[in-house]
Every structure is written in structure tokens, then in C-alpha cells.
Amino acid sequence: MATAETIYVDPSALRRLYVHDSRSRAFCAWRARSGALPLTLFGRAEIVNSVALAVFRRDIDRVAGEAAIIDLDADIAAGRLYIADLLWRRGLDRAVDLSRKHTPELGTRTLDVLHVASAMTLGCHRFVTHDERQARLAKAVGLRVSSP
Predict the structure, then answer these.
(1) DSSP reduced 3-state for 71
(2) CA–CA separation, 117 vs 95, rounded Å?
(3) Which pTM was predicted?
(4) What distance in Å separates the CA atoms of residue 73 and residue 125, rounded to the nearest whole number?
(5) Contact (CB, 8 A) for 11 and 46
(6) pLDDT tens figures, 57-78
(7) Packing angle between helix 110-121 and helix 41-56, nearest 10 degrees?
């Protein structure tokens, strides 16, 4: 399913489509110009939890949180996001290798490593993130990094 043009977007960046902040307007404009984007099952769980956490922190109210999850589900149903079939064993093995090789120098967190490993396993060549450590890891493994 992934092609040379496939872009992997870190779920913390995708969250800006559903819980708005100072970067949401630019990110939404970029998203409107991009094609269908892959989303792993754990990436979906990360977005849903992030929205729920925004409700807990009172960044948004419960109604806005529920609307955000409905919007996420609508994007999946419409094909703007597609659930990427990730070969878990391959992705996790790659994450272990990345952790051993890069985390001692870059200080990457587990989810950051898992997302970069997922992008590689899916054959993506471009990685979108707003996280500096994750971006350094993605660059270290040869992915083109951007942060619209």
C-alpha cells in the first residue's frame, strides 16, 4: 500500500487536525493538499488518548473531544487516513535495532522509535513531525523530515 510518495505523519502532529493549537491552521492547510495518509492502529490509539487527555486537562470540553474523535473516524471512513497494515514483528524488530543504534545518542522515546520504525516498515520516505528528537532519528535513518 505504501509508495515512494507515501508520507508518514506522527500522530502528535495529526492531532492538530482534531485539537486545535497555534500550528493547526498551517497544518490543516498542508493536509488539504496531501493525499491519503497511513495511520497505524497504535497511532490511532495515540490520537484518541491525546484527545481524551486534552479533555482531562480542560484544553477542550467533553463535547469538543467527542467531536474530534468523530472527525478522526470520518477521516478514516472517507479515506483521508487509512489504517496501515503493519507487520508487527518486522516493525518491532526494526524498533529494537533503531533503539540500540540511535537512542544512546539521540535520547529518543519509545513511541518516537516505534513511529519511525513504522514509517520505514511501510516504505515511507517522508516523515512529518514537530518533535525534534523524533525528527533527528528520522533523518538519521534517511527519511526526509518536514513539519508543516
Answers:
(1) helix
(2) 5
(3) 0.88
(4) 26
(5) yes
(6) 999 999 999 999 999 999 999 9
(7) 150
d(CA 86, CA 83): 9
Alpha carbon 63 to chain centroid distance? 24
Domain ranges of the chain: 7-146
Other CB atoms within 10 A of residue 147 CB: 16
> For residues 84 and 40, is the Cβ–Cβ distance under 8 A?
yes
Q: In this structure, what C-alpha cell is assigned to residue 87?
A: 507487520
Helix (H) or strand (E) holding 140, with range, is helix 132-140
pLDDT at position 129, please?
Answer: 95
| Pairwise CA distance, residues 34 & 129, whole Å | 15
CA distance 111 to 82: 20
- 148/120 Cα distance (integer angstroms): 20
Chain position carrying cell 534517511: 142
Architecture of the domain whose range is 7-146 = 3-Layer(aba) Sandwich (3.40)
Residue with the three cell numbers 518516537: 112
